[in-house]
Amino acid sequence: MDRREFRRRLAQRPNSVRFEELERLLDLYGWDLDRSRGSHFGFRRGSEKIVIPRRRPHVLAVYVRLVLSRTGDDDE
């Protein structure tokens, strides 16, 4: 499955995305894990940064939408 298809599948269900899936999407778009402190994980790509708190079983939809918006520009 390519990164656009994976992104589309996550966009269809933002309320039930696991942290591991979001981490994989960020990795597919070139984001690297910069740091983690407690339950918060910081990802970096160039000068851009995203901090996502890890929750179980699912990440909050607001963070899923944030990641989708940051990875959407690369598709076209």
Q: Which spans have pLDDT < 50 for at least 5 consecutive residues? A: none
Which structural class fits the helix and strand makeup? alpha+beta
SSE topology string = HHEEEH
* Strand numbers in spatial order across the main sheet: 1-2-3
Our count of domains comes out at 1
* Span between termini: 17 Å
Give me the CATH fold name. Answer: Metal Transport, Frataxin, Chain A
Question: Which key terms come to mind for this protein?
Answer:
3 strands, 76 residues, Metal Transport, Frataxin, Chain A
Please give a quick description of this structure.
The chain is built from three helices and three strands; from the N terminus they run ααβββα. Helix content is 42%, strand content 24%.
Descriptive report:
The protein is built from three helices and three strands; from the N terminus they run H-H-E-E-E-H. It has 76 residues and is α+β, with helices and mostly antiparallel strands. It has one domain: Metal Transport, Frataxin, Chain A (2-Layer Sandwich), CATH 3.30.920. The longest helix is centred in the C-terminal third of the chain and has 12 residues, at 61-72. The protein starts with a helix and ends with a helix. The model has no long low-confidence stretch (mean pLDDT 91).
Blueprint (SSEs and pairs):
Layout: H1 3-12, H2 19-28, E1 32-37, E2 40-45, E3 48-53, H3 61-72
Antiparallel strand pairs: 1-2, 2-3
Helix pairs in contact: 1-2
